[in-house]
Amino acid sequence: MLTKKQKISKRFFDVILSFLMLPFVIIPLILLLIIASISTKQNGLFVQKRVGIYGSLFSFYKIRSLKGTWHEDIKAIKNSETPFGSWIRKTKLDELPQLFNVLKGDMSFVGPRPDIIGYADTLSNDDRIILSVRPGITGPATIKYKNEEEILLQQDNPKKYNDEVIWPDKVAINKEYVLTWSFTKDIYYLLKSL
Question: What region does 111 belong to: left with phi over 0, alpha with psi -120 to 50, or beta?
Fold first, then answer.
């Protein structure tokens, strides 16, 4: 488990790296948001509540890749991926706005991936150690399941497979990450993600 000093050094690294990246990211980010707005006919910035450090909720940013269409017959929104959305998700460029999550202190560059409500917030006992660190843009579980969507599409019951196979494995991986954290491991995960 990270000490107070380790958490401070991890946060310091996140802030410095964010400021170094910002000048190179800002113009491509604006362009991608404009293209996403045109291709989805909605705000190009997708904002969703995710579970953060200590179980608190925060606004999580991504570039929108899905186009929602209202279907009167079923009274629901059906999401469809645009060609641009498919490309941006494959390249992971849809995650560029999370640089601002890192700057705000909601996220870290490396850590457990932030979950939607119904997963990380339900952790109990020693599994809750995962919530003692900021969620990350990347991390060991994110790298292992970089093709998670493809894996789930191959299952007869994707939600059941996620809940019974992928999610417990992610919890185990993320617990190990927190318990054995080191700065060199964070650098390794960043480089491996690139």
Answer: left
